[in-house]
Amino acid sequence: MNDTKQISYAAVVTGASSGIGFAVSRKLTQMGYEVFGIGRNFSDDTLWKEDHVHPIVCDMLDTNRLCDHIRQIKSENRIRVLVNNAGVGYYGLHEELNPKKIQELVRINLEAPMILAQQLLRDLKKHAGYMINITSVTAGKSNPHGCAYGATKAGLASFSASLFDEARKYGVKVVSIAPDMTKTNLYRNADFREGDEEDCYLQPEEVAQAAAFVLSQREGMVITELTLKPQRHRIKKEKRF
Predict the structure, then answer these.
(1) Some GO term, biological process aspect, for this entry: which one (predicted)?
(2) What are 140-192's pLDDT values in tens digits?
(3) What is the rounded distance in angstroms from the CA atom of residue 225 to the CA atom of residue 222?
(4) What's this model's pTM, rounded to 2 decimal places?
(5) Rounded-to-integer distance, Cα 151 and Cα 106, Å
(6) Can you list the alpha helix ranges (DSSP code H) found in the chain?
């Protein structure tokens, strides 16, 4: 699918109010999709005032409400793309986490994408669609000081690979995009952030371009995994109060 108008198809993007999800939503509108962006809070950005963009305020932890929204979208649209982007990160020694934070990590980073996949898989089969799961480079390595976060992203990557093998014969493309450190608010709960130099982090728009690249391939060829890294690995320590 190329950058041509395809208003007859819809896309669902989670974590759409900022960062990678916002950038992906904007890119999908440029590609002609009717975009339903799910997030907690939406700004007055002009994107959300365009005709083919629909902000949906919903807490990803509220499963019943989330599924209600999905059922409503499904009843009125031909969904061809699902982007599971919403995520939360808690870092530090594992013993310093608490059960609530661990549950939030698992439910938002792993449970919600699995539920949305279940809710929308028949629609994606019907339209030979795409499921793009935003994982992380942490999915494929050891993650001291981020054990639980890395585990959820590894779980999402594993789920993506298995679901592709399960659904590929129906024309469904399941893709993992694994960004390294990206300039977003994911690290708001951490004692570090991306380095100051531009070659030490990714921009959300670059992840969105990767998603567009995945969607632009011919039918019959699938990019199942895509890893994005900045040229240099450098973080900046922050004081925790």
Answers:
(1) steroid metabolic process
(2) 999 998 999 999 999 999 999 999 999 999 999 999 999 998 887 776 665 55
(3) 9
(4) 0.91
(5) 9
(6) 19-30, 63-76, 99-106, 112-126, 147-167, 204-215
- For residue 52, what are its two tokens? 């083919």
| Residue found under tokens 């639980």 | 148
Q: Tokens in use for 203?
A: 């921009």
In the chain the domains, ranked by start, together with CATH numbers, are 10-237 (3.40.50.720)
Query: Which amino acid makes up residue 48?
Result: W
- Helical pair 147-167 and 99-106, crossing angle rounded to 10 deg: 20
| C-alpha torsion sign, points 205, 155, 79, 130 | positive
Helix H or strand E segment including 178: strand 173-179
Q: How far apart are CA 147 and CA 140, in angstroms?
A: 12
| Nearest partner of 42 among 54, 52, 55, 29, judged by Cα | 55
What's the Cα-to-Cα distance from 136 to each of 90, 104, 177, 178, 191, rounded to whole Å?
14, 17, 7, 4, 19
CB 16 within 8 A of CB 39: yes
Distance CA 157, CA 67 (A): 23
Q: Angle at the Cα of 72 (from 216 to 75), degrees rounded to 5?
A: 70
Contact criterion met (CB below 8 Å) for 85 and 13: yes
